[in-house]
Write a structure and sequence with these properties.
There is one protein chain. With 163 residues, the chain is mainly alpha-helical. It has a single domain, classed as VKOR domain (de novo design (two linked rop proteins)). It has six helices and two strands. A hairpin with a 2-residue loop joins strand 1 and strand 2. Helix 2 runs antiparallel to helix 4 and helix 2 crosses helix 6. The longest helix is centred in the C-terminal third of the chain and has 31 residues. The N terminus is likely disordered.
Length: 163
Amino acid sequence: MMGAREMTGRLSRPERVARWGTVMLAVLGLADALYMLSYTGGLVGSLACPFFGEGCNTVGRSSHAKHLGVPNAAVGAVGYAAMAAMALWAGDHPPGRRPWPPLALSAASLSAFTAGLFLTWEQATKVKAWCFWCLSSTAINALILPMALREGWLALRSLRRTQ
């Protein structure tokens, strides 16, 4: 049985704010990742690194800035662009009306957050330096995660009801 919100096909104001919050955070994360990628690619000679001195450069040039030969920042840029696209793809429709974008966003967000935790662990234990931009990326993922998981959960519940 669909509720009134699912019948109208529109998000409530708080849900719309959360969805646009996800888009904005993903765009902020994309800018962060592109800045780091510009350093990794040699377009920027040195990163501005609030609070950590040369830590951003140390982390950005370490062997842990790439995995399987791919710069972490490139994966982050693609991931953030994808998360923004998924949130926009869902439009103003509640998760029950268009369930696949929220489910995909949930999976991407959980993956990004998990990767951020792993990379933060690597900074502490392997590189022994801190990067403001990397920590900011992990924080952005931590902010996106609950919004994405909530929508994903609602989408999953909706799919289960239709079976």
